[in-house]
Amino acid sequence: MGREANKGLHNPVCAGLAVLALLVAGASQTQAVPVTTTYEFLPEQSTLVKSGGIAGRTETYTVEGQFKLTADFEVGVACFDQVDATYGQGWSLGGLLSMTELVGTIVEDTEIEFVGETVFGSDIVLTLTFIDHSVHLTGGYTDIFPDGYGNDLDAVAVPEPATILLVGVGAVGLLGRKYKALGSRR
Hints:
By secondary structure, the chain is α+β, with helices and mostly antiparallel strands. It has one domain (about 5-185): Porin, CATH 2.40.160. It has helices at about 5-30, 95, 160-185, and strands at about 35-40, 45-50, 55-70, 75-85, 90, 105-110, 110-115, 125-130, 135-140, 150-160. Strands 1, 2, 3, 4, 5, 6, 7, 8, 9 and 10 form a ten-stranded antiparallel sheet that branches. The longest helix has 26 residues, at about 5-30. It is globular and about 50 Å long. The model is unreliable at about 1-20 (pLDDT under 50).
């Protein structure tokens, strides 16, 4: 590998090692570390359904983009740090569902419930369920107006490839160091 290519990998490798070291250190000290993961919506499995209004219309939109989720399982809280996802003609999913304003409570190791309100006072409830190597995000809200719309999200997201790569590279580096340290003791 050339010097420039190697230099370009230095920061992601260090970041991967740092993330893994924090996770390992937190686990070994029985003190959990909040974990932030970037998830990417799978458009073929992610929809937002808007229904209602005066005409009683129903429209289904594909959801695309990503979001960052931070979860602290020790404390039992979670939040959406950033939402860069759209539906329909580029409309903001995070804005519609006030995602970064929601309060997340870890109900169990595989489920987080997010609650909050829209700017007009409608209650929002989203449930995030961890399934294998993905998350399933469901819920929404109904406008409080007599002719309001219901907004129902049913979406699947997976960790973004760069996040998986960083953690994987960090794990390989950490295991290599451990193996090297064991070898030098013999």
